[in-house]
Amino acid sequence: MYYTSFHTHFRRQLLALVILLSSMSHAFLTPSHSTTKAERTRMTLRYADDNGNMELTRLQRVALAGVSVSATGFWVLLRAGEDAYYPLRVTDTIADTGAATSPEALTILQLLANVDMAGAILPPDILARVIVLSCEDGQCDAPVAEEVLEIVHNKLPDGVDTYGELHEWGQSRISLPVATVDEIILEDHKQFTWRCSVKHLGRISLQPTVSTLQKISYDFRPQVSFAFISIALALRYRAPISMKVNRQLEASFLSLEALQKRFPMYRSANKLQQTSQRPAIAVERVFEINKLQAALRIAIEKNDQAAVARIRAALDEMDSMKDLPVQPDSDTSAMQ
C-alpha cells in the first residue's frame, strides 16, 4: 500500500515537472503551428541581448528567387515570404555591371542550370578543405572534429603537424573525408553557418572565418566571398537555405516592386532554368580569360611589349568570348 501511494505520488511529481519544463522551453523555442507552407518553414526564437532585453529572431526558410547584375556587382535575390526579398551580393566587380561575366557569377548561373563544372573557382574538394581547416582552428563540433582530424593528420608527411601548414600542392595529395552540405544558414552578408555531414562520421556545423576562406579562395574578397561560396555550395549540394531574421535584417527586405526598381535587370531563377537548355557555359575558359586580362594590364604597366603581344594573341585565340551568354541574342541578354 505504501509502495503504491509512493509510486503514484512520484508519477504526479514527474508529470508536473514535465509540464513545467515544457512551458519553459515553449517560452524560448516556439514553432509556428500555421498550416500554410510558408509558416511551416518558420521557427521563432526568443533570447536576451547583453542588456537583458528580449530579442526576437526567426529561422526562416528562403528560396533563391533570381539574380541580377548591377553597377555594384552580381546579386542573388532570396525570397523570404510572399512579397519579401533579401538582396545578397556575391561579387563586387565591374565585370558584372552590364552582363554576368565574372567567373563567380557564371558559376552561380551554371549551378542554377544544374551544371557543376567544379573548376578553380569552386573546386570539388572546397567543402572538405574548409571543414578540415575549421576543425584545426577549433571552429567545429568537438566529437566529429576530433575524428576528422585523426583521419587527416594520420596522412600528413613527417614533420608536419597540421593540414593547414601544407602548401596547396601538398594539400591536394591528402585524401579528405567526403562531406556534403545539409543546410546553409545566413545571419548577415558575411556570417553563415554551414550544417554538414561527414561520411561515416556524422554531422558537423561550422562558421567559416576570414582566415579559412583566404586559404581556399582563388580571389578572396571579404565583402562577398562568404556569400558566394555559401550560396554556391547550397546550389551544388541542393541544400536548403535559411535565414536568422530579426528586426534589423527584416528592415532590409524588399517587395517585388521595390526589387524590380532597384534591380531592373533582375531575372527569376525559374526563367533562367527554363532558358538554360543549351551547352554549358565555359566557366573555366572565362576564368582563364580573366587571368590573361590581369596579366595584360601588368604587362602594359611594365611596358613589356613582347608580353603584351603574346597575351593579346592568346586572348584572340579565346575568340573574345563570343559564344558566352552575354550577347544580345542570348537568353541572358536582359541582363545587359
Brief summary of the model shown:
The chain has helices at 2-28, 37-40, 103-112, 126-136, 142-153, 168-172, 210-216, 225-236, 247-250, 256-262, 269-274, 283-301, 305-317, and strands spanning 29-31, 42-48, 54-70, 73-81, 84-89, 179-188, 191-198, 202-206, 241-245, 267-268. It has 336 residues and is of the alpha+beta class. Strands 1, 2, 3, 4, 5, 6, 7, 8, 9 and 10 form a 10-stranded mixed beta sheet that branches.
Describe this structure in words.
It is flat, with a radius of gyration of 25 Å. The chain has helices at residues 2-28, 37-40, 103-112, 126-136, 142-153, 168-172, 210-216, 225-236, 247-250, 256-262, 269-274, 283-301, 305-317; strands at 29-31, 42-48, 54-70, 73-81, 84-89, 179-188, 191-198, 202-206, 241-245, 267-268. The chain has a domain at 282-314. Strands 1, 2, 3, 4, 5, 6, 7, 8, 9 and 10 form a ten-stranded mixed beta sheet that branches. A hairpin with a 2-residue loop joins strand 3 (54-70) and strand 4. The protein is α+β, with helices and mostly antiparallel strands. The chain starts with a helix and ends in a 19-residue tail after the last helix. 28% of the residues are buried.
